[in-house]
Amino acid sequence: MAAVVDDRAVCCGHHRVCESCEVRDLAVCRVLSPEELRRFAALARHVTLESGATLFHEGDPATHVYSLTRGYLRLCKLLADGRRQITGFLVPGDFIGLAFADTYVYSAEALGPTRLCAFARTAFQDWLARTPHLEHELLGRARGELAAAQEQMLLLGRKSARERVASFLLAFARRLGREPGETVPLPMTRTDIADYLGLTIETVSRTLSGLRREGLIELVGKNGYRIRHAAALEAVAAL
User: Fold this and answer.
1) DSSP of 46-82, one letter per residue?
2) CATH (one of 1.10.10.10, 2.30.120.10, 1.10.540.10, 2.30.40.10) for 159-237
3) What is the pTM of this model?
């Protein structure tokens, strides 16, 4: 399934669309003044994706960068033997694409209905050169992504299955700004979580059930959870 691009979504509404954006305080544009935001909005197009649609494929020309405003994305790479490895999940407010060279180094797929602001890469880079505080914001995010990559290496290389699942639940709740007791959505499948953590789906399901029985988490339907005892869950995660 292809992305749907609405060319009128931003340029006809100008900055009013950005000012009313529900993730404005989380997105990179939060550092822009009203006048800068007006000019920034003129660069953007809205992209909407249906569940399961691909924003871009690994190896595609990296022509655009994106700010995720609604929904979630799954990032994945294909290994030489044809297996898929999920490398991460993006949440509203995340920015994607600037670190790439000529091509995208992984694929990005929608986990449910998703909406993004898309910027032509060359135009965005030209605008970035004239807006140092936006460049500083992106640099800070890049440092955060590097720290997350290092944590993922630790997660896969040193932690047990139980520690991996607990770490994932804590980290995802933090990324969404959810406090203990608040419902955290789980837009990805158990298979996605297993792939990301380097586990089997049976191990993920068994570990989640165990954490629930111990009262550390509460599973909310098929697509959510609540952290009941954060300190105990952090102890399990060996944080």
Assistant:
1) EEEE-TT-EEE-TTSB--EEEEEEES-EEEEEE-TTS
2) 1.10.10.10
3) 0.86
